[in-house]
Amino acid sequence: MTAETSQTLDRGLRVLKLLADTDHGLTVTELSNKLGVNRTVVYRLLATLEQHALVRRDLGGRARVGLGVLRLGRQVHPLVREAALPALRSLAEDVGATAHLTLVDGTEALAVAVVEPSWTDYHVAYRTGFRHPLDKGAAGRAILAGRGPDSERGPGFVLTHGELEAGASGAAAPVLGVNGIEGSVGVVMLSETVPEQVGHRVVRAADEAAAALR
């Protein structure tokens, strides 16, 4: 810690990070051990975070991340969208299909940015705010693939057909290496299949978006 930083704030942020990294929550004792501070300090940190809905405690006393974190997270979407738009515009124009950036929102995939090509006669209408399960559609499947080790990612992109809209095919690749962001970049088009070269172009766009977000 330096003279310009707040020890209490630092500890509070560390509590949130520790809770975000576990699915089953942590007790006061566990947090005390991980932070290297006494239980009284942890109680005070949790009480303050609870007041802002950033932490909640279940009946067993285990602390978990609160819904207030989700509300804060939603405010990040405009910043993420702005950073990713150049990569999406280039992808949409090159492929001639609707390009999108999709992020994880709970157990769903949420489209936070959509760019349509300017030169095609028709294309799939895909709207910002569109949600779907993570295990359906190229965007969600690419996010799930990005959670696995490199050796299991194959070509780096996922192709699907008709999973979210009849007659539409999709290609998506995970956005990797960006702290705090789990998402994918993809395209959706009216076709029976997506050419493999489009998949590789989507991977490049995902890499460009990731670089802009770092």
UniProtKB/TrEMBL annotation:
PROSITE patterns: HTH_ICLR, ICLR_ED
Gene Ontology terms, MF aspect: DNA binding; DNA-binding transcription factor activity
Stated name of the protein: DNA-binding transcriptional regulator, IclR family
Domain HTH iclR-type residue range list: 6-67
Domain named IclR-ED: residues: 68-214
PANTHER family in the record: HELIX-TURN-HELIX TRANSCRIPTIONAL REGULATOR, ICLR FAMILY, HTH-TYPE TRANSCRIPTIONAL REPRESSOR ALLR
Keyword terms, alphabetized: DNA-binding, Transcription, Transcription regulation
Gene3D superfamilies: 3.30.450.40, Winged helix-like DNA-binding domain superfamily/Winged helix DNA-binding domain
Origin: domain of life: Bacteria
GO biological process, one term: negative regulation of DNA-templated transcription
